[in-house]
Amino acid sequence: MKIAVLPGDGIGTEIVAEAAKVLGVLRGEGLAIELEYAQLGGAAYDASGDPFPEVTEKLVHQADAVLLGAVGGYQYDTLPRAMRPEQGLLRIRKSLGLFANLRPAVVYPELANASSLKSELVAGLDIMILRELTGDIYFGQPRGIRTLDNGEQQGFDTMMYSESEIRRIAHVGFQIALKRGKKLCSVDKANVLDTSMFWREVITEVAKEYPMVEFSHMLVDNAAMQLVRAPKQFDVIVTGNIFGDILSDEASMLTGSIGMLPSASLDANNKGLFEPCHGSAPDIAGKGIANPLATILSVAMMMRYTFARGDLAQRIEGAVRSVLQQGLRTGDIYQEGMKRVGTVEMGDAVVKALG
Ligand code: IPM
Ligand code: MG
Predict the structure, then answer these.
(1) Do domains 1-102+259-355 and 116-255 have the same CATH topology?
(2) Which of 39, 148, 176, 322 is geometrically suited to a Cys-Cys bond with 44, CB 3.0 to 4.6 A?
């Protein structure tokens, strides 16, 4: 298991260090794990003037999987767009062909009252948002800012999906649904956008190959509403890049603890990049209080999806459950009566619970 580790910016270094401890335990048990570190985002820009330098690109192409902390920081907000940390993220996704982005929103029983929604609405919630990650208006050309004939300036982007892009993400969606609650909801804006009309046409065709999956369509504005009205109606949601960006943030907050949510971005061969759903949190960076559990759970996803070691994934997830049951909480998930711990203490507790 050759793993490229990209701590990134902000709290990235702190949380990745805890996830690396978990990998260290597995290596100690004889698993052939090899970690190689490189930079991405602001840290990479500072060191080499490029948020996705060539050395990093080489390393991630040679690796079987990538573990990423987070990228971004206030100090980079005024850089030209191509130099910003987020561009490093978009480029690594494109370069590795990571078209399938899995973002689970799971409510842990121990944290059910952390949500801003009534706890009965979210207790037991377990949904998977599958976001297409390398197409859509994120990458469509042409785009830019141009001057019209009348002298006025105009900004523009292009939303587009080709049939093959829709087909491959659709298949991933149905496959995931088959392994879970066997329900797939495709989200689009087919009442307005041609791209969405075509998306709906293609995915409906793919659906014929999966008669055992209960398949439905939903318009994105309705989906945004349904997610906060009755989120448990969903099992797997499949959607395009921009809608998935927005809905996955919404879904993460249903759990009330974005510090708990991992994500996986996979290519066609299940090689993947694994990262927490949350950002680099520059406001708490360096204080040792960030929650490392989302990054540790990202390692679990890596074991499950890239290395087909569901057994190890379950062990890591079990260890995380166990530290929650022990009452350990970082500040972001702290509740009255629990034991407040820092990043390192939390990581150590997971290592201990791994047994
Ligand atoms: C995400 C983020 C990124 C995205 C940004 C940082 C480019 O919001 O991973 O959801 O829009 O994809
Ligand atoms: Mg986002």
Answers:
(1) yes
(2) 39
Is the CB of 245 inside a 6 Å radius of any atom of ligand 1? Answer: yes
Q: Residues 94, 139: contact at Cβ < 8 Å?
A: yes
Task: Determine contact, residues 231/251, Cβ cutoff 8 Å.
Answer: yes
The domain spans of the chain are: 1-102+259-355, 116-255
Per-residue pLDDT reduced to its tens digit, 220-265: 999 999 999 999 999 999 999 999 999 999 998 898 888 899 999 9
Asked if 215 and 207 count as a contact pair (C-beta separation under 8 A), the reply is yes
The answer to whether 20 and 299 are in contact (CB under 8 A) is: no
* Catalytic site includes residue 267: no
User: What's 1-102+259-355's CATH class?
Assistant: alpha beta
What residues does the ion ligand 2 have nearby, CB within 5 Å? 245
* Whether the Cβ atoms of residue 71 and residue 51 lie closer than 8 Å to each other: yes
Q: Which of 89, 92, 138, 242 to mutate to test the pocket of ligand 1 (most atoms within 8 A of CB)?
A: 89
CB 56 within 8 A of CB 39: yes
Angle at 77 between CA 37 and CA 245, to 5 degrees: 75
List phi, psi (to 5°) of 120. -70, -25
CATH class, range 116-255: alpha beta
For residue 83, report the phi and psi dihedrals to the nearest 5 degrees. Answer: -95, -5
Average pLDDT, the chain: 96
* C-alpha span between 34 and 151 (Å, rounded): 57
- Taking CA atoms only, the protein residue closest to ligand 1 atom 4 is 245
Rounded to 5 degrees, φ, ψ at 106 are: -120, 135
264 beta partners = 102, 274
Asked whether 89 lines ligand 1 (CB < 6 A), one says yes
